[in-house]
Amino acid sequence: MSNYNSKDIIVLDGLDAVRLRPGMYIGTTGVKGMHHLLWEIVDNGVDELSNGHGFRLTVTMHKDNSITVMDDGRGIPVDKHPKLKVSGVEVVFTQLHAGGKFNNSNYAYSGGLHGVGASVTNALSEWLKVTVCKDGIKYAMQFSAVEKGKKVIGGVPKGPLKAIGKTRESGTEVTFLPDTRIFGDAKFDFDTINKRLKELAFLNGGVEFVLIDENVLSETSTGYRTRIYNYKNGLRDFIKYLNDGTNPVYKEPIYVEGKSDLLSMGCAIQHVDNYNENFFSFVNNIPTTEGGTHEVGLKTAITRAFNDIAREMGLLKEKEQNLMGEDFREGLTCVIALKLKNVQFEGQTKTKLGNPEVRPEVEKLVYEGLMDYAKAKSSKATITEIINKAKGAAKVRLAAKHAKETARKATSADTYSLVGKLSGCTGKNALINELIIVEGDSAGGSAKQARDRHYQAILPLKGKPLNVEKKRLNQVLDNEEIRTIISALGAGIAGDFKIENLKYNKVIILADADQDGAHIRAILLTFFYRYMRELITEGHVYVGVAPLYRVYKKNFSEYVYDDDKLQATIKKCGAGYQIQRYKGLGEMTAEQLWNTTMDPERRVLVQVTLDDIAEAERMITTFMGDNIEARKEYISENANFNKESEFEHIGENNG
pTM of the full predicted structure? Predict the structure, then answer.
C-alpha cells in the first residue's frame, strides 16, 4: 500500500466540488436535478416577493433549453463585498456558502438557508447571464464553464460586473443553460414548471407569476404559450382548487390567520363529503410533505376548538364525551402556510419541520382564529355542518375500530387463506423480493410458470379490487381482493401500516394494456395512496410495461411496446414478417412473459413517484371520485395525446 500523506489530500477550489459530485447538491443529474437548478433561482426571486419587495416573477423557456427567471425585487447587491473585494453579484454566483439569508435583517422569511442555490446553478450551467437593475443603473455579468485539459471548471466569470446603462426598473434577471455534460439531453418540462408556479401563486396571494414557453405558439392568440397566475384570495383559492371535483359540505372555506414574534400563519379548511383527510403544509413556500410540528399544533387546535364550539352551541350535551380528532378530520382538506424565522428542517430534503417552539404557537393562533370565526352569526350554518359530520363519523367509530383490529390481523398471511392465490417466493430477503400483482387467473398461471421463484412472488387478482376513494376503512376491508393484498404485503394498513414489516422491496402492478387494465392500475394506485402511502413515497411501487406486438420471422423476433415503433420494427424485420398482437398478458407463453415483463435484464418498469402531493390529491379525487363532469373537464383541459412519456424506465427492453 502506498503512503498516505497530506499531499494526497485534494482541496477543491471554488465550485469544483459541485461539478465533481453534483448529486450532493441537487439530488440527481436527471430531469429532476436539472429542474432543481431552476428552483434555486426561482426561490431567490420568491424570497424577495414574499418579503414585500416586488409583485411579479416571470419564467421564460427558450428554444435552446436555456431558461430565464426575472423578478422586480430590489436586485442583487452590486457593491463590492468588504472581505472578498468583488461585487455582491459575483459573490452570490461563485461562493457556495454566501447569501443574505443567514440573518433576519434582509429577509424576515426565507425558503433556503444553505447559501448554495445560485452558485450551484452557475456551477452546473454551460453559461449563465445575470442582469441587475438597481438604484437607477442596469448592470450585467456573464459566467461560463471552461475546459482546461480534461477538466471542466464551472461558473467562471467572463469579466467583472459592468454598468451597461440607466433604468427606471428594479430587480434581477438570470438566464442559464444547463450543461449537457452533466444532464445529457434532459429538457425543461412545461407542466412541471407550470404546476410549481401555480402553487407559488396560491401561497403568495396577490403576487403574479408568469410562465412563457417559446417552444410552443399560443393556443388563442399571437405570441407564445403563456400562463399567468395571480390569486388574490391565496389559500382560500388553493382549497377550492384542491377540492374541485368533490362535493363540499359548505361552500366557502374557513380561513384563519395570525402573527406572533416567531411566525406568520395562514390556514384554510373545508370539509367534503368523503372520508379522507388531507393536510397540505408549507413553510416559507417549501412543501413540508412529511408534516412536522406545525401540523401537530394545527390538528390539536382543530380538535380543541370544534369541541369547545360544539358545547357552546349546545350541539354536544354535558354528558356526551368530546369528539375525537379523527372525527373532525373526516373529509377535511386543510392548507397551512407559515412564514417562519430561523427554520429548522429535518434532513436536506426540507420535507419536515422540526422547530419544537412552532407547535404551541400554531395551536394558539389556529384555536383563537376558529373561536373568533364561530362568533359570527354567518358562520352558524357552517359550524353546524362540521359538527354534524363529525358526530356522524363518531357513530361509525366502533366499526372503524373493529376494522383496524381486522387490519392488524390481516398483517399475517395466515389470517386469510392465500392457497391458490399467492404463489410465494422461497427467498427470505425482503430487500430482494418482488410481489408481482397480475390481472386474472390466465395471466397468473403464465406468470407463475415464468417467474424466478427464488425472489418473485405472484398474486393474481380474480376480480377488480374495490375503488376505495369514497369508502371507510371497514368497507375497504370487506373486499376480498384488498384483504389478500394486505395479507401478502404483511405491513398492515392505514394507521397501523409499518413499512419496516414490508415483505417485498418491489410491488409491481402488471395489468393488460387496455381500458380494464388501466382501471385496475388506477384502483390499486388509489388504494396504495390512501392507505399505504409510504409504499409510494419510499419508492416501492412500480408499473410493468407489457408489449403490444411481436414482429417475427424465421431468424428475427422483436417485441414492440407502442404503436409508433411498429412500422420501424416491420421495416427492420423485412419481407415475410408476421405480427402477433397481444390483447392481454394471458395470451403470452411463460417464456414470452419472462422475456418481456419479468426478466430484470430486459423488462421495462415505471417507478411510481409522488413529487407533488397537492396535484396527486386533486387528480385522484377527480378521476376516482363520482363527479363525472369534473372528470370530463379535467381530461379536456389537460389531455395531450401527442406528448411523449416522461416516465423513468427501470431496466431495458428488446423492442
Answer: 0.73
